[in-house]
Amino acid sequence: MAATGAASGHRADACPCQNPCMRRLLIALAMLPALASCVHVNVHGDPSAYVGEAKLRVATYNTSLYSDETGGLIRELQGDSRHARKIAAVIQRVRPDLLLLNEFDYDDAHLAADLFQRNYLEVAQAGGGAPLRYPYRYLAPVNTGVASGLDLDGSGQAGGGGRNGGNDAWGYGLHPGQYGMLVLSMQPIDASAVRSFQLLRWSAMPGALRPVDPALRQPFHPDHIWTQLRLSSKSHWDVPVRTSKGIVHFLVSHPTPPVFDGPEDRNGMRNHDEIRLWTEYLSAGDKPWLCDDRGQCGGLGADARFVIAGDLNNDPVDGDGRHQAILELLEHPRVLRHATPRSEGGAEQAEAYASAGLQHRGSPAQVTGDFGPKAGAMRLDYVLPSTGFALEGSGVFWPPRASAEAAIADGSDHHLVWVDLAL
Predict the structure, then answer these.
(1) DSSP letters spanning 268-304
(2) pLDDT tens, 69-127?
(3) Are 380 and 368 in contact (CB under 8 A)?
(4) Pick from 305, 269, 327: which is nearest to 58 by CA?
(5) Which residues, in sequence order, are CB contacts of 148 under 8 Å at separation 6+?
(6) CA of 10: how far to CAs of 7, 136, 186, 245, in Å?
């Protein structure tokens, strides 16, 4: 669960010599034993390298780098994955300083993350930019594919093979770690201060939307199951990142899609409350129920700066989701009011669907993914900075079909969303 990379500081003691030339020579000689460690630090990331940096590009990207088989992503990345090369090419083009990857399978040894960094990001890709190395990262276990031992889908049996087992996992998945999350950073991550909410019970949230069977007019989950259900389908992380202007809290998640359920709408309600968790985390009050996996309770400090990022699986106006939670988050007083990221390719695709009869109410230029002829193009991916930042630019990497960049933009059904912030 620890971020990779080492941070080290060096202090040169004052030299008693009054001769400026001699003083510089003595200081240089004194530093020689440390040079080897400086090389090591530079390889893994040196916090001092970012002193004076005044801008931060933050992005989120649902990469679809997952497999239905345990270890499947590792095997794919050990080969020559055309899919991974396209994802890496997009990242190389946009070059975020801080990046969340959704749907990147987690493994305990972090092999997939190592392979993606070494074999794809650090290699110049066709259509991409120069090789790119992230000195810091954070990844940790998620709820997807982790067996609950309970009958969560109401099928009459707990667990089983294939989708039956996936439906009864704490978060839908065919093996532990499927659809995981990975944070990559150019600047140091304070891994010891990360807060994760993987284990938080759904029923702990005041006013939780408990699914009800409309035919029976009673709760879909019996009490003994409801009180054990976890809220987060993957996890919710507060990842503190050290910048030259202080800590930025990277608040990342990937709520369940509000579909693939029944009339009880258990996924729709869970999606709503997973998004609402961030609203609660930002809002004033003691919140003794809001306890992380280490037992620390309460929300984010009132003076903390943050960026919320992720595939939140909810469009503000279109699609099957319950839109209240995402609208409340967008309108939260601590979230910066700013122009919504846009793209030409998204507008082109949304307008094509509209011409074919699939009408949506949202702005065509603001969509972030193409989900096929039934759902169309929607805005599901968000990068939401806090007040206290100045927004200098934003966008969705979704080039128009006729452009050369379109060749690398189809690695996922989602597109990378980025914002530029003045620190």
Answers:
(1) HHHHHHHHHHHHHHHSSS--TT-B-TTS-BS---TT-
(2) 999 999 999 999 999 999 999 999 999 999 999 999 999 999 999 999 999 999 999 99
(3) yes
(4) 305
(5) 158, 168, 169, 170, 228
(6) 10, 20, 20, 20
Enter the tokens of residue 387.
Answer: 């007040």
- 214-267 confidence digits (pLDDT tens): 999 999 999 999 999 999 999 999 999 999 999 999 999 999 999 999 999 999
Q: CA 34, CA 50: separation in Å to the nearest integer?
A: 20
Q: Nearest-CA neighbor of 86 among 417, 405, 382? A: 405
Please tell me the least confidently modeled range out of 7-16, 333-342, 379-388: 7-16
**Cα(252)–Cα(256) distance, integer angstroms:** 13
Helix (H, G, I), strand (E, B) or coil at 385: strand
The tally of CA atoms less than 13 A away on the side-chain side of residue 42 is 6
Conformation bin of residue 61: beta by default, left when phi > 0, alpha when psi is -120 to 50: beta
Kindly report the backbone phi and psi dihedral angles of residue 89, in degrees, each rounded to the nearest multiple of 5, phi listed first: -65, -40
Q: Which amino acid is at 277?
A: L
Beta bridge partners of 250: 239, 307
The model's confidence at residue 53, banded by pLDDT at 50, 70 and 90, is: low
| Rounded Cα distance, 275 and 236, in Å | 10
Phi, psi of 53 (to 5 degrees): -65, 130
Residue 135 CB partners (closer than 8 Å, separation 6+): 4, 5, 43, 44, 45, 185, 186
- The amino acid that residue 343 corresponds to is S
Token pair belonging to 366: 């603001």
Q: In the Cβ-directed half-sphere of 359, how many Cα atoms lie within 13 Å?
A: 2
Spell out a b/e string for 197-207, using b for 16 or more CB atoms within 10 Å of the CB, else e.
Answer: bbebebbebee
Tell me the pLDDT of the chain averaged across its residues: 89
**Which pLDDT belongs to residue 54?**
86
Q: Using CB atoms within 10 A of its CB, is residue 166 exposed (0-12), middle (13-18) or buried (19+)?
A: buried
DSSP string, 103-115: EE---TT-HHHHH
C-beta neighbour count of 260 within 10 angstroms? 13
In this prediction the pTM is 0.88
* Six token digits for residue 105: 């399978």
